[in-house]
Specification:
The chain has 32 helices and 21 strands. It is α/β, with parallel strands linked by helices. An eight-stranded mixed barrel has the order 13-14-16-17-18-19-20-21, surrounded by four helices. Strands 2-1-5-4-3 form a five-stranded antiparallel β-sheet, sandwiched between helices. A five-stranded mixed β-sheet has the order 7-8-6-11-12, with helices on both faces. Helix 2 runs parallel beside helix 9, helix 7 runs antiparallel to helix 9 and helix 23 runs parallel beside helix 25.
Length: about 1000
């Protein structure tokens, strides 16, 4: 479709608006035309009687002149600005005409007497022209230069002198000769035509402004005054004046002049849209300047015609005609001289401006080109040599479109057509339409330059101001690329990958769509051991391997860190996609050689398949997001199942995630609403049977009031922040309960709170422990923080700093679950702790399995060698307690002594002297002597006699590596074992 078609609705609306405006304005105009025609017809027919003719010739003209006076006066008071005075003067001049015609009517119609000479009517008619002349002078545009004022005066005299010469030759000479005996009559007889000549001179020789925005009103007023002046000139002729009586055809001219002047303030010209092709019309040619330039010569021609009339007709050339003609000729000569000097000044100014413009164009870094209507270049600025590397003279005469890239020609033509179709804004006549066009232009070296051009209309063609924006285009392309690609590996980022997933799901031609989520196992250890620079190089090599392992049409992206993704689409089955994922895993798991060192990482991959067929456009975004979430879930399942494997997504993973989310919310609600309660299980000294500590264990209070063990419940919600809140609640409740027991007169018994490694390292946990001790007043030595699981090796340093910070606070530390794979011995060596607790899996088979007894013995011997207190968990039977005594275990807890107790039963247990111990088993009974209390150490065994402070105080041995550091933070989980 041509670009000009876009403006057709606007043209249609403009035409409809013009039709409505024309219909509204034409009705009063038609009525005025009918009124003037009716008056002319009546005057031509003599009005039917002498009385009616006198009435219409006097009072009819007076009424029309009065209407004109009232109309101009009302309009003058309504409008503002410099045109107000002109309309008020036009109203006063029409009022004088009304007064003169009314006076004639008073004598002829009312008094039925002839109008006396030198009556009020004569002086009223005489004042019409001066007032109108003054109004025209107010309305005229004033020159800005002295030469303009001089030319205005000379033009006025040329017009007035020429008309005076012609009028004198035709009639005024005879009027002056007939009334030469009476000076008053001579003055009155000559005043009318002279003033009319001056009035016509102003109308013809001057240009008038219309600052009130209604140019048609000014033009209508000019026409009305011109009609009145023509009738006055005819009335001045002796032939007309001698036989004139009211009601004749000449009155119709005066009537029409007054009606036009009355209608002028309220007339509306054609809509401005007529001047624009957007309204369906053609732009009008302005002829005001041409008419003004020809006015002096036309006036001289009129003067010459008057002289020739007298000379060729045999009339006497009196001195008045000769003097007027001579002054007209002299004025024309002087005006020509003034115009010649003014033209010379203008030529110099134009030359100066042209030189200034040429210097600007030639010195501009932009290329300025002028093209004709056919696209042929007529001018090219010298900047083309530097910008396009082409000689401007070689470009002149060629076609502009030959320089444009073939793919951009249609777009350039469309923009040019749009500019040509647009027209000036009506509110701003001097505003030319312009547009910005970007295209590629061939340079002299053969390369394509990106050029931005400002295009404007210039006469019948276009003018283009162009500059090279290739660098900006390259920068924008680079920024666009960076916005959707990873800066390290140059792979697509998450945003671009998500968009391509949505496009693949929305396109039915893509067939099967699958997403692979990849995570590099062990990458963090690489960063920590050899640095981030080597880690970045490993990521670059991994990205290269990933691109090489997938197909050419597949999309590979990096999401950040060590997470990658691949989009696979096409006619592939699930087995083929799994084989592709296995190939990717093997490629990423190969050793990496960086800086002469071999590094190894594995890859955990999750696969999710999109829905069969294409997704609707409205659902493509949601389907793409769900597909990527499913692949992410499968990847995390692969990591949780041992890493370095490929796992296919199944709906059960989503169900499990939803279940964990639900349980986390239930855990959060239980903590918030007080759904948990604390029980305490006594820890018994195996040498004396005394309760030397209690371990706080949480129970979940069900809706029926039963207390349930929340271990499985908490393990399900391990990944949320609800467990961190639960851990903080447990620390606060355990410390507060211990403080209350101490304040109640019970013997001080330390309380143990078990925390998982993630919860102990969670931000804010150290502050929670410190605040609980400070607010409750419990001595720090009465609290033991027990580490439930040490976690992977790379967290041992952080755990060591957290535990060292707690020890500096005065809190004892312990490691639970020893002997069951809770952590490596290397990690255990870096942890500062005061006691070591055997896992219940070793204690349960202790009495029945020699292997278990040997393992437990080695674990207890290691604790003794480290100089820490050994504790056994899960001693539920007396035989297990006896075996622990024989192996040298210091303390134990379990059902053999007591189950977890509520606060009331715990208080009773603390008031008792202790629990009975079982009899020792077999030949190892003598080993109980090792656990006998030493009187010199205040009832404690020899192993603990040398430890300073309370019986949980740490022992700093040389082989122990203690790391200090602050604790903190709000995330993590607490694992609470069942009783």
């Amino acid at each position: 479709m041509d670009s000009t078609d876009a403006v057709l609705p606007v043209q249609a609306r403009s035409r409809r608006a013009l039709v409505r405006l024309t219909a509204t304005a034409s009705l009063p105009g038609s009525l005025l035309v009918l009124l003037c025609l009716g008056y002319t017809g009546g005057a031509a027919l003599g009005w039917g009687s002498r009385e009616v003719a006198l009435f219409m010739g006097d009072f009819g003209l007076a009424g029309a002149a009065l209407a004109a006076a009232l109309s101009c006066l009302v309009h003058g008071f309504a409008v503002g600005g410099p045109v107000r005075g002109a309309w008020l003067l036009f109203g006063l001049s029409s009022a004088m005409v009304a007064l003169g015609n009314g006076t004639w009517g008073w004598y002829e119609v009312v008094l039925r007497a002839p109008v006396p000479q030198d009556s009020v009517a004569d002086f009223a008619f005489l004042l019409f022209a001066p007032l109108a002349i003054t109004g025209l002078a107010v309305l005229a545009q004033r020159p800005r230069k002295v030469a303009g004022w001089l030319c205005l005066v000379l033009d006025g005299w040329l017009v007035a002198g020429s008309l005076f010469t012609l009028s004198w030759s035709l009639a005024l000479g005879r009027v002056a000769a007939g009334e030469g005996s009476d000076p008053v009559k001579l003055a009155l007889g000559l005043a009318y035509p002279v003033l009319d000549i001056l009035l016509v001179s102003l109308v013809v020789g001057l240009r008038f402004r219309s600052r009130d925005g209604n140019r048609a009103a000014v033009h209508t007023a000019m026409v009305g005054l011109a009609v009145t002046v023509v009738c006055d000139a005819l009335f001045t002729s002796p032939e007309f004046r001698s036989g004139y009586h009211s009601g004749e055809l000449l009155d119709a001219g005066w009537f029409a002049g007054s009606v036009l002047l009355a209608w002028a303030p309220w007339s509306h010209g054609r809509s401005p849209s007529l001047d624009h092709p957007s309204a369906g019309g053609l732009p009008r040619r302005r002829v005001a300047s041409t008419f003004s330039a020809l006015t002096p010569y036309v006036a001289a021609a009129v003067c010459t015609a008057g002289i020739l009339y007298n000379a060729l007709g045999g009339h006497f050339l009196d001195r008045v005609v000769l003097a007027a003609a001579a002054t007209v000729g002299l004025a024309l000569i002087v005006r020509q001289g003034v115009m010649l000097l003014d033209n010379l000044s203008l030529a110099q100014e134009l030359a100066h401006k042209e030189a200034h413009f040429r210097s600007l164009v030639q010195g501009s870094s932009d290329v300025i080109m002028i093209a004709g209507a056919t696209g042929v270049l007529s001018y090219v600025s010298p900047a083309a040599l530097g910008v396009y590397s082409r000689d401007p003279e070689e470009l002149v005469g060629g076609n502009l479109l030959n320089l444009v890239h073939p793919e951009d020609v249609d777009r350039v033509l469309a923009e040019v057509r749009r500019i040509v179709a647009r027209r000036r804004v009506p509110a701003r006549r001097d505003a030319e339409p312009s547009a910005r066009v970007e295209c590629r232009i061939r340079s002299g070296g053969g390369e394509w330059l990106h050029v931005e051009s400002t295009v404007n209309r210039y006469r019948d063609g276009l003018i283009l101001n162009s500059r090279d924006v290739s660098e900006r285009v390259r920068l924008q392309a680079q920024l666009q690329h960076n916005a959707f690609h990873d800066p390290l590996t140059d792979l697509p980022n998450r945003a671009l990958f998500a968009q391509r997933v949505r496009d693949a799901l929305a396109d039915p031609a893509d067939g099967q769509v699958a997403v692979l989520f990849l995570d590099l196992d062990g990458f963090k250890a690489v960063n920590d051991s050899v640095g981030h620079q080597v880690g970045d190089e490993l990521l670059v090599q991994a990205a290269r391997r990933l691109r090489g392992a997938v197909r050419a049409g597949d999309t590979v992206a990096r999401f950040g860190g060590d997470e990658f993704a691949a989009l696979v689409s096409g006619r592939l089955g699930r087995t083929q996609v799994q084989e592709l994922a296995e190939r990717v895993r093997c490629a990423l798991s190969e050793p990496y050689w960086i800086g002469g060192a071999e590094l190894g990482v594995a890859a955990s991959i999750g696969i999710a398949f999109g829905p069969r067929g294409s997704a609707p456009d409205l659902d493509a975004a949601a389907a793409g997001d769900e597909l990527m979430r499913n692949a992410d879930l499968a990847m995390y399942r692969a990591k949780s199942e041992g890493k370095g494997r490929v796992v296919l997504y199944s709906p059960a993973m989503r169900a499990e995630l939803d279940r964990r989310t639900e349980l986390e919310e239930r855990l959060r609600s239980a903590v918030r609403e007080g759904g948990f309660t604390l029980l305490h299980q006594p820890v018994v000294d195996l040498a004396t049977g005394q309760v030397v500590a209690v371990e706080a264990q949480a129970r979940w209070r069900s809706a029926q009031g039963l207390l349930l063990t929340p271990a499985e419940f908490l393990r399900t919600a391990e990944q949320g922040d609800a467990a961190t809140r639960f851990a903080r609640w447990m620390v606060l409740e355990a410390v507060a309960a211990a403080a209350r027991r101490g304040a109640g007169g019970l013997p001080p018994v330390p309380v143990t709170v078990r925390l998982a490694a993630a919860r102990l390292c969670a931000p804010g946990m150290y502050e929670t422990v410190a605040a609980a001790l400070r607010d409750s007043g419990l001595p720090a030595g009465q609290l033991t923080v027990e580490l439930a699981r040490t976690g992977p090796d790379h967290t041992a340093d952080e755990l060591g700093r957290r535990m060292a910070a707690l020890r500096r606070l005065g809190v004892s530390t312990a490691v639970a679950g020893f002997g069951a794979g809770g952590g490596s011995l290397g990690a255990l060596a870096r942890l500062p702790f005061d006691s070591l607790k055997l896992d219940r899996s070793l204690v349960q088979d202790l009495a029945d399995s020699a292997l278990t007894r040997a393992l437990a013995g080695h674990a207890l011997r290691l604790g003794r060698d480290l100089g820490v207190v050994t504790v056994a968990e899960g001693a539920d039977h007396p035989r297990q307690v006896a075996a622990l005594q024989e192996l040298g275990c210091r303390r134990a807890q379990g059902l053999a002594f007591a189950q977890p107790l509520d606060e009331t039963r715990l208080r009773r247990a603390l008031l008792r002297r202790g629990y009975p111990l079982p009899r020792p088993l077999g030949p190892l009974a003598t080993r109980r002597q090792h656990l006998a209390p030493d009187p010199r150490s205040g009832g404690r065994s020899e192993a603990a006699a040398g430890r300073p402070g309370h019986h949980h105080a740490p022992l700093d041995l040389p082989q122990r590596h203690t790391v200090g550091g602050p604790a903190g933070g709000p995330h993590g989980e607490t694992s609470v074992p069942p009783a």
